[in-house]
Amino acid sequence: DQQVKQNSPSLSVQEGRISILNCDYTNSMFDYFLWYKKYPAEGPTFLISISSIKDKNEDGRFTVFLNKSAKHLSLHIVPSQPGDSAVYFCAAHSDSGNTGKLIFGQGTTLQVKP
Amino acid sequence: EPEVTQTPSHQVTQMGQEVILRCVPISNHLYFYWYRQILGQKVEFLVSFYNNEISEKSEIFDDQFSVERPDGSNFTLKIRSTKLEDSAMYFCASREQGGSYEQYFGPGTRLTVT
User: Fold this and answer.
1) CB contact under 8 A, B55 and A99
2) Chain B, 20-79: which have a CB under 8 Å from a chain A CB?
3) d(CA A24, CA B46)
4) Which domains, ranges and CATH numbers included, belong to chain B?
5) What is the three-class DSSP state of B34?
6) Per-residue confidence (pLDDT) for residue B100, from 0 to 100
7) DSSP string, chain A
8) Which residue does chain A place closest to B9, by CA atoms?
9) Mutate to test the interface with A, among B42, B57, B67 (most CBs of A within 10 A)
């Protein structure tokens, strides 16, 4: 069951450049998408989210873009900093049922080189 | 800033033993969740809890698992008879009532079953 997929297991970028992390989904019932950042031995930390009625949400250096027709979202980090090095998870919430269950992708490990 | 806390950080147990993982969600949150992450895999939903009852559970959450909110602050996950394949990081999460679906995660409990 891979309703949320992050096809790139890893990404390496230079400090100051843009990091683009991608996520694809298959379930058209998903109505809300979230990005989480995770450091080793810690829990996922909420980063930014987007409702399915929007196509862009921006918060400081982080911007999430949603393309509903392509069932694709991306997280842009600009400029990237070494402290951004972590595993990034895309997660989706389904509108069916009101439990708020999140379905996660496999994660992308971002390394930002100084 | 309020945060979700979990104890213990690491639990080692023998196969067949019972374990209880404890969580203190953020105080004004009303939805509670358990997720797990087997090493190298994605974060998987186990169960959601609202209004003192389970609102949804995954296929993983079989009869060996139970959850409880014994008082106004704690939220526990019990595994009655642990198996080797239960070894994983277990994350508790909570969210407030309302339109936002952001869940806030605890630091996790690493469960090792030997």
Assistant:
1) yes
2) 31, 33, 35, 41-45, 48, 50, 55-56
3) 22
4) 5-96 (2.60.40.10)
5) strand
6) 76
7) --SEE---SEEEEETTS-EEEEEEE--TTEEEEEEEEE-TTS--EEEEEEETT-SEEEETTEEEEEETTTTEEEEEESS--GGG-EEEEEEEEESSSSS--EEE---EEEEEE-
8) A41
9) B42
Q: Within an 8 Å CB–CB cutoff, is residue B106 touching chain A?
A: yes
- Each residue of A66-96: pLDDT tens digit? 999 999 999 999 999 999 999 999 999 976 6
Q: Which domains does chain A have, with CATH numbers?
A: 4-113 (2.60.40.10)
Judged against a pLDDT cut of 80, whether residue B8 lies above it is answered with yes
Distance from CA of A45 to the nearest CA of B (A): 7
CB contact under 8 A, A43 and B41: no
- Would you call B45 and A42 a contact, using CB atoms and an 8 Å cutoff? no
Least confident of A44-48, B42-46, B72-76, B83-87: B72-76
